[in-house]
Amino acid sequence: MSFKAPSSAHPMQPDVLPDGPLAQSQESQDHHAIWELLEAVTDPEIPVVNLREMGILRAVRQGPSGLEVVITPTYSGCPAMGQMEDDVANALSSAGVAARVITQLAPAWSTDWMTPEGREKLRAYGIAPPVKSACAAASGSSVIAFAWRKGLVERDTVACPQCGSDNTTEISHFGSTACKALYRCLKCMEPFDYFKPY
Amino acid sequence: MASYQDYLLFLADNALILGQRNAEWCGHGPILEEDLALANNSLDLIGQARLLYQHVATVRKDGKSSEDLLAYFRDVPDFKNYTLLELPHGTALLPTSRGDRDYAVTIARNFLYSALMVQAWAALSASTDAQLAAIASKSLKEVQYHLRHAHDWVLRLGDGTDASHARMQAAFDYLMPFTQEFWTASAMETSAIKTGAGVDMSAFKTEWEAMVSDTLQAATLKVPATTGFVTTGKHGVHSEHLGFVLAEMQSLARAHPEAVW
Question: In this predicted model, what pLDDT tens digit does every residue of A71-120 receive, in sequence order?
């Protein structure tokens, strides 16, 4: 818990955002220059992907008191979130853009929102990109059915980012950061991180 | 008169106190992977608590409430977490010194709580409070991982060696009576259920019991009785253990109030 000004200083906006991946091309979006500018802001823990490719950067819009850049947290406790907020704010201010950074929870972030190029960059970096997000697909009582009767015992088929083999095994559900699990390839024997579907 | 804030604090305190307890394993896990697992589990739980405390602070609109104030500057009777979640990681039969933490207790507790919350967060993601619904749909994804993790270890330890089986069974024997508190009524829950913002935990009892008995059976364990004293943590009447948890968690913030880093 930080001792800095709590983020409740700017409460969540009720505005509804699209639930799903952003359009691959931002050309048609308003505020094109700001989208372009923010292409340079990368994930502090996985510096090869930027926030748009991760699906964290959700919108650039005109708010009641000026421009707003909306980001959404990945995991509730992701320690990189504060850093991302600061990085976006710094990128904007150093380019002379006056805009507020807003963190909005709903709709909840999903790894399904990662762009194809983001997934490819993860793989090239040595992190197996997430398979489909079963969590995001399930809702209501089917979640229980999923979580219990199937999901708990089923394992994703994860391809090794080094040699491409599907013959891999999970070492641990939890890895070096909240978003990753630890796997090992049984073909090339290399251990690797797997970005968990969320 | 119970307020809606109390209901949010109940959800938040549950997450914070279990997160704090599980974080005690950080640097002391039985194996490296489990050290990471428990630290990640705590990170999720403390993250959920932060979002809920921030929401309380926003609902209060008093200009001075903050997540830090709510986490660090309330005392034992103000906390509304289930007593189950504040217990140390040892059965009553073990000495209480730190070196005698029992991982079976940690696993059993995470399993029992996650099996409840996987249902509760799923239902709360349809809460009439849009912000709570948003927090719930994030938390649901996280608790599914926690449930899977705990479930796998219950199987592994229960259906493991004689020693691991005995400890897993002792952990469930010890903890199960505390789960009775899940199903008792409280004014804060009743009023939150009425407005559609909250959910009725007792509605999840049948499914919860099925999860517990299926898993314990698969792990060659016996489902212990859930009789005996019904704890009252969510009413602010706690065991002697919570004070020690808070002392460790809050002392730094209280020694340096409003410190900035």
Answer: 998 887 788 888 999 999 999 999 998 889 998 888 888 888 899 999 99
The reply to whether residue B36 touches residue A174, judged by beta carbons under 8 angstroms, is yes
Backbone angles phi, psi at A141, to 5 degrees: -70, -25
CATH of B4-255, one of 3.30.565.10, 3.90.480.10, 1.10.3720.10, 1.20.1260.10: 1.20.1260.10
Instruction: Say whether A105 and B131 touch across the interface (CB within 8 A).
Output: yes
Helices B4-23 and B187-195: angle between axes, nearest 10 degrees: 120
Tokens matching residue B7? 């209901």
Return phi, psi of residue A155, to 5°: -125, 145
Region A6-34: mean pLDDT is 59
ipTM field = 0.72
Structure tokens at A155: 């394992």
Distance CA B122, CA B138 (A): 10
Chain B touched by A4 (CB under 8 Å): yes
**CA B84, B88, B91, B96 torsion: positive or negative?**
negative
Residue A108 to chain B, least CA–CA distance (Å): 6
**Angle formed by the axes of helices B4-23 and B32-60, to 10°?**
160
Distance from CA of B95 to the nearest CA of A (A): 30
pLDDT of residue B198: 97
Map out the domains of chain B as residue ranges: 4-255
Alpha-carbon separation of residue B185 from A41, A52, A124, B188 (angstroms)? 49, 45, 53, 9
Strands A127-128 and A191-195, bridge-based pairing? parallel
Cβ contact, residue pair A77, B50, below 8 Å: yes
Cβ separation of A75 and B43 shorter than 8 Å?
yes
